[in-house]
Structure prediction request, 120 residues.
Amino acid sequence: MEALVGLKDVRVLAYRRVGPDVELVIEQTAVQRLCPTCGGRGQIKERPTVRYVDLPVYGQPMRLAWRKHRFICRRQDCPGASWTCADHRIAAKNCLLTTRCAKWATMQVGTGRAVFRCRA
Prediction:
């Protein structure tokens, strides 16, 4: 299953069918626990799941459900308060497509192909 993601520090938690789509649930095994504002230690606050559209696998529409880590800074005087781990290799911030799906769509548009026609 890890081969479907192709990243060494990403673990596959589940593989399931959701209607016509296949959903792969993942999490990162190595995450940045230091506060980006003050450098203090962070503690897990929540584990939100964010869903993305990914490239089709074996002709089946694929979705990626990423169980992220949301941290809170332990230092009371920190103005940053909380942060969510991000990884551009998986998906860009505020994007609904995985990075590899977004790159593929960009290449298709660059060749003059309408992306809506590319859905498996």
Observations:
- The chain has one domain: 10-108.
- Residues 99-110 form the longest helix (12 residues).
- The chain has two helices and seven strands.
